[in-house]
Structures are given as C-alpha cells and as structure tokens.
Amino acid sequence: MIGYVTVGTNDLERAASFYDAIAAEMGVGRMMEFDSFIAWGKMGGAPGIAATKPFDGNPATVGNGVMVAFEAADKEQVDKLYEIALAHGGSDEGAPGPRGDDGFYAAYFRDPDGNKLNAFIMSAG
Questions:
Q1: What is the DSSP string of 24-80?
Q2: Among 13, 17, 40, 83, whose Cα sits 20 to 30 Å from the Cα of 6?
Q3: Percent of all residues in the chain with a pLDDT value above 90, rounded to a whole number
C-alpha cells in the first residue's frame, strides 16, 4: 500500500549522507534524485524513503507523533542501523533492545533534521 515516505530536510546534502548510509546497510541506494529531493529504495521493491526540501519554500519541521520504521533483517541489523544513524549525525531516542514480551526488538533515533526513525525486528515470541 505505501510506496514511499517523505521526511523534510533543511540541508539535503546532510540528509543524503545520513540516508545513503542507512540505505546501504539495507541493501538499496538512491532510486530518484532531483535538486531538492532524493529517494532511496528499489523500484518495484518494498516502500522507500525520501528526503525533501519543502515545496512551499518554508523551513522543514518535524511532525509530532510521526515516525518512520525500517524493518531490519535481524537484531544485529537493528543494532547496526542504530550505530550508523548515530555515526552520521543522528541522535538517540532509545537504544536497541526488546520492547515488551511479544518478540519486538527495536532502536529509536532521529535523523539530523530531527525526524524520528526506528529500526525493528518482530519475531514469534
């Protein structure tokens, strides 16, 4: 149902560095690129993510309650994505670890513009 998710940025070059590293860990690269917009993913694949300067010319702001979640291959990749995020200008919102008793393992972080992200794995118990 979802084709891609877009987050706003005030510095596309900085956002590109951050999302290039995240995308590389997930085995994809840039699939679309314009002066004010870059999208990562695979054409015809799973939903992708894009960073864009707002079309209206106003500063990008963070949506309260908005979060984009990356489905990882395993717990090790959750940990790795968290490390990559922090190493590329992201900030901590919750270190990797189990959340609840339902097999949900996740890490929470923000990109350099403050957009909230999550890497997770859900297993059966």
A1: HHTT-EEEEEETTEEEEE-TTSS-EEEEE--TTSSPP-PPTT--EEEEPSSHHHHHH
A2: 83
A3: 90
